[in-house]
Design brief:
The protein is mainly alpha-helical. It contains four helices and three strands, in the order αααβββα. The protein has a three-stranded antiparallel sheet, with helices on one face. Keywords: Nucleotidyltransferase, RNA-directed DNA polymerase, Transferase.
């Protein structure tokens, strides 16, 4: 419903007319997107910090630095990835946050 006024702009055969209703919808969508980005970055920061305290991931990081575990990588921010997937430490509360976020998001977590 929130995106409907903007979706209507893109319909075939419709004249592109920017109205107040569409401007309001656009501004509201921007607020949702920005809030989502703040939540995502906060969650990502928590994961990054938890990775530093996880002995298993620390061993993987050491192996990556030694040229082993090529399926793992450490990005420029120091976050550990397995191929294209984020490594979430064995922290029940953190994993619960990730799952809650993934399932309550407006965006799907699966391709």
């Amino acid at each position: 419903r929130l995106a409907l006024p903007l979706t209507q702009l893109m319909r075939k055969g419709k004249k592109f007319v920017w109205m107040d209703e569409r401007e309001e919808s656009f501004e509201e969508l921007k607020r949702f997107h920005q809030a989502s980005m703040r939540i995502e970055s906060n969650l990502m920061l928590q994961i990054k910090e938890a990775q530093k305290d996880d002995d298993e991931l620390w061993a993987i990081v050491q192996n990556v630095e030694d040229g082993k575990h090529t399926e793992f990588s450490v990005d420029d921010d120091g976050v550990v990835w397995f191929e294209d997937r984020l490594c979430v430490p064995s922290d029940h509360a953190l994993r619960e946050k990730v799952m809650t976020k993934a399932h309550s998001s407006l965006f799907t977590v699966h391709p």
